[in-house]
Amino acid sequence: MRRRPSRTLAFKLVVILVAGLLFYIGYYLGQVYREDQLKGLSATVFQRPHPVQPFDLVDQNDKPFTADSLKDHWNLLFFGYTHCPDVCPATLTVLAQVYNRLAERPELQKLTRAVFISVDPARDTPERLKKFVGYFNPSFLGVTGNDEQIKKIAGQFGIFYERHAPVDGSKDYAVDHSAAVIVVGPKGRTLAVFNGASDPVRVAHDFLKIVDFFGG
Amino acid sequence: MMKLKSITSALTAASLSLIAASCLAADLQVANAWVREAPPGSEVLAAYMSVHNNGTKTVALTGASSPAVRRIELHRTVMDNGVASMIAQDRVEVPPGKTLSFEPGSFHLMLFNPTEALPAGKKIEISLKLDDGTQIETQAEVRRATAAPMEHHQPGQ
Question: Within 13 Å of residue B96, how many CA atoms lie on the same side as its CB?
Fold first, then answer.
């Protein structure tokens, strides 16, 4: 028969305090580690993300496309136009390569898509967008709207665009636009922004870090 | 036999002198010219290449044309504060001894309104105009610049 050690109230309090302190240190280190995961990324990550504000657009199949349409997907939003020969095809090519690199995580790949938002609604009909965007990857989506609607969604994401006057003697005109790629997660929140996408390996790596940081 | 040999050597001499002539005319060497295959129905495409100046003077490109498209402009994509602008260039200078890359996100040839279908694998002739009034001919292959998912591959690609 061994005697049970006597446990005074003070002893119990000390045990509780130490346990609490250890728990707090663990939690704190966990947070630091979690935020460390985002260091050195080529994207700006919003650690307290805000939901995407309501907008009204139309997709390449003539169906309404709203903030709710972004939910349940990992969306890579990119603003551009189909008469753009350099930056837009180059970026959509990179996003298609990023998509292909997600093959190791089929569940995630299934939910991931690029959403190409036209800044040239006068020329970019849903039909035209479908041909253009589908060429890069059949699961990518093109969306457009009227001037007012495009201005509203571009404003929400801080996207600048400006149409040039047509080149002399032709109807051709170019549109300046931000080359940013915006990550909107399955809860419909804006999680991160890439200033541009030119290196598929880097974007895929950073995208996975963002996905793992926020989870589904 | 003798005849064939002499024809061959005559042809060789002729082609060598042609090469020499074009070098003398331009001092510019164009390599790796390619056109990015565009999605179906596209009215614009971009072509890229590298241009090396072998000479001792700066040479400028002032224009381009091709029988495969209605019009070509020299362009440069400029990124300013994250905003991409395409700026038409009247002349693109290549300093002596330097190589200028026409590449995605930078200098490119903007091709307007193809006069025929331009699928990957097709080769088109491009003629570059220089500021000394001469021209350089180059051939550019249309290439598909994306790794498409398997189910999207079409036969023959």
Answer: 4
